[in-house]
Amino acid sequence: MPAATAHLIPLPVEETAPTTRERIVEVAARSFREIGYQKTTVADIARTLKMSPANVYRFFDSKKAINEAVVERVTGEIEGMIAAIADTPKLDAPERLARVITALHTDCRRRWEAHPRVHEMVEAAMSESWSVCQAHVDRIEAVFRRMIEDGVREGSLTVADPKAAAACLHAAIVRYCHPLLVSRQHGTALPPLPTMIAFLLGALGVSGR
Amino acid sequence: MPAATAHLIPLPVEETAPTTRERIVEVAARSFREIGYQKTTVADIARTLKMSPANVYRFFDSKKAINEAVVERVTGEIEGMIAAIADTPKLDAPERLARVITALHTDCRRRWEAHPRVHEMVEAAMSESWSVCQAHVDRIEAVFRRMIEDGVREGSLTVADPKAAAACLHAAIVRYCHPLLVSRQHGTALPPLPTMIAFLLGALGVSGR
User: Fold this and answer.
1) Which secondary structure element, helix H or strand E, spans residue B77, and what is its range?
2) Which residues of chain A have pLDDT under 70?
3) Which of A99, B15, B40, B149 is surrounded by the most beta carbons within 10 Å?
4) Residue A188: its chain B contacts at CB < 8 A?
5) Is residue B11 over pLDDT 70?
6) CB neighbourhood size of A14 (10 A)
7) Chain B closest CA to A199's CA: distance in Å?
8) ipTM of the assembly?
């Protein structure tokens, strides 16, 4: 078939691998969020998609594998969001760090607070698919490290080991950005995020912001 | 009865209110740790103690109230431990802070890692009895604040608002000291605690330790 006319022949959408895969992930994500990871079965996902469980298993060999794809999609969105902020022109490194941390917190609240059952999916990923979580942590810390290195170069930060500082910074904000903790914070005990950010920027050699 | 001879007459131990209360808390603590909060009933606790559920209810009006007493006992032990470290003579504030944080982390690992079911008890306290958790957080932060104020006085720390800094410091170590997170850390992602402590002491105006 000539390439110039190939696009005129509609593809059978149901049978196109990437699209079916995406639809499975989409339906699974919604079910994990609303019904919960524990109560969702592969058969439920297949039924919603009006396909056989065997067809779902052509794309994913287990519910765990589906969850990994769901988590990868979510973490990919988060990483894309913070990379865009980290690349904002004309802002110094402390300001970009503050904006990235604020965005992680806001996104986490928006994404998880409304759906308590999403905890199950996160817990499952943490216990069964740690490498997916670890890869996300590594990519977030790479973005932090890049901003810290920029700050050292531009003279706005004083940090001896940017890689270690990025890891410490990330560990220090877990109370504000971890799906298992954000929805439980009850607001009472936690310092306001701007206070916390100023404290942590102090650890990076910035003072009096 | 003359006070001088009262101690010679043995009290009926089973009927002494504080002791029975303590035994209920002891048995409940063990059951929550080993069987889990969800699966433990007040009837189970009574059966272990060879008493009627009604007798348990004379001391605690619900399983939730028993859990609060268990959590208060545990948090009291932790607070006693760190208060003793915070009062160690001849150590400067940064060193005492480092030792308190290390002790909180070590205690948390020792106490929770071996008993995965203890999560249920912690989750129940966090969702049903937040004031008990909050009181613990407040007391830990009061100890941090006292050490930070000592450090400012002795010139080893530079902190404008010790109360806020204590709250930030506590929030920043949650990854190392929270029962819901410590047992899940898998070791891979987290900076070593001494690195994290040095980072956080930097936020308190200490450098190059």
Assistant:
1) helix B63-86
2) 1-18, 183-188, 207-209
3) B40
4) 130, 134
5) no
6) 12
7) 6
8) 0.84
Give the residue among A197, A184, A186, A65 at the shortest CA–CA distance from A144: A197
Instruction: Select from A126, A171, A202 the Cβ nearest to the Cβ of B190.
Output: A171
pLDDT in tens, B121-143: 988 998 888 889 899 999 999 99
Nearest residue on chain B to A188, alpha-carbon basis: B134
- pLDDT tens figures, A137-179: 999 999 999 999 999 999 999 999 999 999 999 999 998 998 8
What are the two backbone dihedrals, phi and then psi, of residue A165, each rounded to the nearest 5 degrees?
-65, -40
CA–centroid distance for A66 within its chain: 16
Q: A126 contacts in B (CB within 8 Å)?
A: 184
Q: Closest Cα of chain A to B30: distance in Å?
A: 25
Q: Are B154 and B91 in contact (CB under 8 A)?
A: no
CA B61/CA A172 separation, integer angstroms: 39
**Beta-carbon separation of A189 and B165 below 8 A:** no
Tokens (6 digits) for B15: 């009927």
Q: Which residues of A touch B200 (CB under 8 A)?
A: 168, 172, 203
> Of the candidates A137, A127, A136, which has an alpha carbon nearest to the alpha carbon of residue A64?
A127
Element (H, E) at B61: none
The distance of A17 to chain B (nearest Cα, Å) reads 34
Residue written as tokens 């608002």? B161
Domains of chain B: 63-203 (1.10.357.10)
User: Which residues have CB under 8 Å from B9's CB, separation 6+?
Assistant: B1
Amino acid in the structure at residue A207: S
Angle (CA) B134-B139-B144 rounded to 5° is 120
Rounded to the nearest angstrom, the minimum Cα separation between B191 and chain A is: 6
- Please identify which residue in the block is written with the tokens 């920043």: B172
Q: Which of B175, B177, B195 to mutate to test the interface with A (most CBs of A within 10 A)?
A: B175
Kindly list the residues from chain A whose CB atom is less than 8 angstroms away from the CB atom of residue B127: 184
Taking CB atoms and an 8 Å cutoff, what residues of chain B touch A166? none
